[in-house]
Structures are given as C-alpha cells and as structure tokens.
Amino acid sequence: MTTKELIIEEALTLFSQKGYHGTSVKDIANAVGIKDSSLYKHFSSKQEIFDIIVCTMENKMEKMSLEMGLPPDNNFTSAASYYGSLTKEGLLALSRQVFLFYLKDPFVARFRKMAIIEQYNQENIYRVYHRIFLESSIFYLTALFQEMIAQHIFVAVDACILAMNFYTPIFFLLCKYDQTPDLEAQAIECLDKQIGEFYRIYRICE
Amino acid sequence: MTTKELIIEEALTLFSQKGYHGTSVKDIANAVGIKDSSLYKHFSSKQEIFDIIVCTMENKMEKMSLEMGLPPDNNFTSAASYYGSLTKEGLLALSRQVFLFYLKDPFVARFRKMAIIEQYNQENIYRVYHRIFLESSIFYLTALFQEMIAQHIFVAVDACILAMNFYTPIFFLLCKYDQTPDLEAQAIECLDKQIGEFYRIYRICE
DNA sequence: GTCTATAGTTAGATAGAC
DNA sequence: GTCTATCTAACTATAGAC
Fold first, then answer.
1. Do B70 and B148 touch, CB atoms closer than 8 A?
2. Span CA (A106) to C1' (C9), Å
C-alpha cells in the first residue's frame, strides 16, 4: 500500500470515529507514521483528503452494492426468478448477508459512520449517503419486488411498500447495532424475525 | 429568556448543524450577541455547555415522548383500548402526528440531529440517543401491541415484530427527510402507505 | 518523499477593569 | 455580567534542507 493510500485509510478510520473537525492533520499523520508536514506532499489540504475519500467510496460503494446482495446482473427478471426460487431459509440467509455486509465490511462500515456524522456538514457526503442508503436501496428493491409480483412469487401489493417493509428493519438495525459488535447475535435474531414475517405475509406458497 | 438559556439555545442550534468540534465558543457567543469571554461567566467550559444540553434534553425528551404520541397515562390496558377504538384514519392521523413531532418540533429535531452527528464522539449522547430513538420506542410499542393483541384488536403475532413493523418506517423516514422540509408531503404519503398496510395486515375487523 | 522549523491563525480559557 | 486584553495551546499550511 502506498503512503497516499495509507493516508486515505487512516483518515477514513479517524473521520468515522471522531468526525472531520475532531480529527487533526497531525492525528492522521501520526496514524500513518509520518510527520504532518509530509502529508502535504500527497494532498494539498485536509479537505482534499476528505473529498477524495468521498469520491473513492462513492464508486466503491456503488460497485459493492451491485456485486453484493442484490443484483447478480442488472436484469430484474432473472434476479426475480432467482430470488423466487429461494426457500424461507434462503431468504433469511440472503438478508443476513446483506445486513452483515453493511454492518461489518471494513470499508462500508467506516464510510457509513463517517457519512452519518458528517452529513449535515459536508454537502457532498450528504448526497452520497442519502443516495446509497436511503434512495437506491428502496428504488432497487421496489423494482425487484415489482418483478417478483409479476412472476406471482409475492402477493400483489404496492411494491414500494414491500421494499420499505423489507429494508427499513435492516436500516434500523444497522443504526442500532453500529457500535456494539458483541450484540451481533441479538441483531441477527431480530432481523430473522422480521424477514420471516415478511416471508409469511407476502410469499405466495406453491 | 436568560442569557444562560439563550446560550443553551444557540449552542444547540449550532451543534446540531456543525457538530461540537465544528462549532467554536466564539460562534456561540456571536449568536447570543456577547463576547466569547463573557460566556465563561455562565459556563466553565464548552464541554459543560454540551453536557448540560444533553441532560436538559434527556429530561425534556423523556417527558415529551410520554405526553406526545403514545401513552396518555402509563396504563397499557387503557391505552390499548383507546388506540383499539381508532379507525384506520385515526391511526394514520396518530402516526403522522408522532412522525411530524419528531421531525419538526424545534427541540426534538435539533436534539436528534446533534445526537446523530455526535453519537460516536460523546458517550453520554450516544446512550441517550439510542435509548430514546432505538430502544424505548420499540420497548413501549411492544408492550402496547402485546396488550392490543390480548384485547383482540390485532392478530396474534410476536408483538416485537409489530413494533418493528410500525416504527422502523417512521425511523427511516425521519433520517431520509431530515434536511428536506419541502418534501414533507412526500414523506407523509410514504408513511401513510406503510401505516395503511400495517392496519390492513394486523387489524382484526369487527 | 521525509524531515525540521516556522509562519499565521484560531481555538479554549483566564484576569481584571467597569 | 459584560467588556478588553492576554495567555497558551493547537491547528492548517508552507519553506527549505536532506
């Protein structure tokens, strides 16, 4: 890893814990193991470090979200069929995978925390955070459930409602168990109950 | 309003927008209309201002949460009967009232934002925020729905699941529409759909 | 690309006049 | 209880040696 990448890395960790203003250039340099003045050979300002993190993570998150969890490709019809073939246990496993990815993936977890604490302060991260965690998720799931309803996998209710019922407990649990990795089992138990209920209500049995 | 109260007031506004480290003592003093040094006649440090806000808001929030929205008294049996008599429109109105209170009440809205952006940095506000917005809400609703199930108002499923299904969309929408008061109608529309669905699924019709 | 040295600014906080 | 003046420390950032 280059020094530049190391700086990004340590800055992300510190920003996600103490926030932008709570982290000094010296803190970052210390974490990297260089003097604060040396840092300016790689970046022109502290703000630039932050902005580059936002850009980098924006692309990374977009890519990860696509690979992970939801669309294997961007074809909703095949995705719907694929998920439709899942048993209840398969659906539980899938939701756990998505939840734990957002909760524990080192990049995603730090980025989410940084975004949460800097969203009112830094315009760029507000947009990215809201797009990824509050808009795209619902948008994608709505389209997916729409297709699954068309394929008679789920009962015919407003797909947006399905998306909300599926995703909002995940979002809530992410916020709730953010700082308590030791309570992961409890989080998963609650998640399983919600997804189980979702399956019970909306899944059309063969 | 005394100067001391004014300081608390302006500090809360600034902390909720720019965070603790993003707000200087001078910023607060300017907002109040005094010199920064004068501020130390009322508080011994910047941290003390923050801590007093947390304590004050903790009590205020606790009281408001009780008055508002949910329990008219702490008797779940009567509360359950009361809410059981609500029509669908009554339930929608109630959920809207709770949502808009958390979203727009000047104290609650600022406190929630401050809590969100300082939760990883200040231990005291982490506890208060999680207790009020992530634990108590679910805990209270679980007890309430438990009682409503016993009274055959709702179908007999795990009351905790009901509480999550009722509350997590509200929580999600609070996060989503925090900074966009102009999109309030859109938020309410989505909330109504979720609560309507909740009513449709779980309410036992006479 | 790292270091030392330092400029220039702002931060939180105190002393003492009124 | 507000002000001016001031202290000390920390901050972002730059200059220049190696």
1. no
2. 36
